Amino acid sequence: MLVEALTRTGADVTRASMVQHLEALRDFDTGVSPSVTFGINRRVGVQGAQFAALDVATGGLVAASEWIPLTP
Prior knowledge:
By secondary structure, this protein is an alpha+beta fold. It has helices at about 1-10, 15-25, and strands at about 50, 50-55, 60-65, 70.
């Protein structure tokens, strides 16, 4: 998500521009977790976590654990 927000922000990165582009992420596919959505009043993208590992053959991420939901 950081790379995507930086790509969208461009060369002149500021805190405000990063927040703006992160808040614009909708149903962002991370490849290893459920889709992530941020917004002005939604700063928690997902309600859980999953460990991932780098697949050296493909350079991509692969799930290294099951989805671990957060319990409030």
